[in-house]
Amino acid sequence: MKKKILFVVTSHDKKGNTNEKTGYYLGEVSHPWEVLVEAGYEIDFVSPKGGNPPVDGFDLNDPVNKMFWEDKHYHQKITNSLKPSEVKPQDYVAIFYAGGHGAMWDLPNNTELTNIASKIYEQNGIVSAVCHGPAGLLNIKLSNGKYLIAGKKVNGFSNEEEELVKLTQIVPFLLENQMKDRGGVYEKSAPWQNHVTVDGRLITGQNPQSAKAVGEAIKKALAN
């Protein structure tokens, strides 16, 4: 049996009260997927509602996106994502939260998902996320009652990056601010630079440009 990693994607498809579509960001799934599948892991997908999650950043000129989207096995898996109630945390060595703006709306307060992540972490697994995916980490509490990210080095989509995409007034909160409020030791690079933060078994990446490097960091952490 291959060891398994759980990828979390959003079910949310609208940017606030705008009519702009959102969802999970394809490159933030495909780039870590490529690294981890090549390393011999099997990936499962879960979303708050299960089924076929909305996709954003749908660029098939990116060869890795194209390879992922045209992989019959994985296309079937992501378009039929698991519901949280169908997930057995003990089956996974790591959990990874992909970004896309949708993550800001439905991942932070999904208690089923935060419980799954907490269990994976406490069985010595890895918790990881990229871009807006760290929104899903904000409310993960460990059995000692403390927030997972409290006192740990973290990163995620920065306030400056949110300003550059002109969504500061649309998102329900600013991710950088919330990570700091939860006690995370937030760090960042200039916008759109690859930046991955590793603090023990917690791995976070700042933006879409960091997605592959988060996959590499997960692979390295699992090899130790």
UniProtKB/TrEMBL annotation:
Keywords: Glutamine amidotransferase, Lyase, Stress response. InterPro entries: Class_I_gatase-like, DJ-1/PfpI, Prot/Nucl_acid_deglycase. Residues 28-218 form the DJ-1/PfpI domain. The keyword Lyase applies. PANTHER family: GLUTATHIONE-INDEPENDENT GLYOXALASE HSP31-RELATED (PTHR48094:SF11), PROTEIN/NUCLEIC ACID DEGLYCASE DJ-1-RELATED (PTHR48094). Belongs to the peptidase C56 family. HSP31-like subfamily. This is Type 1 glutamine amidotransferase domain-containing protein.
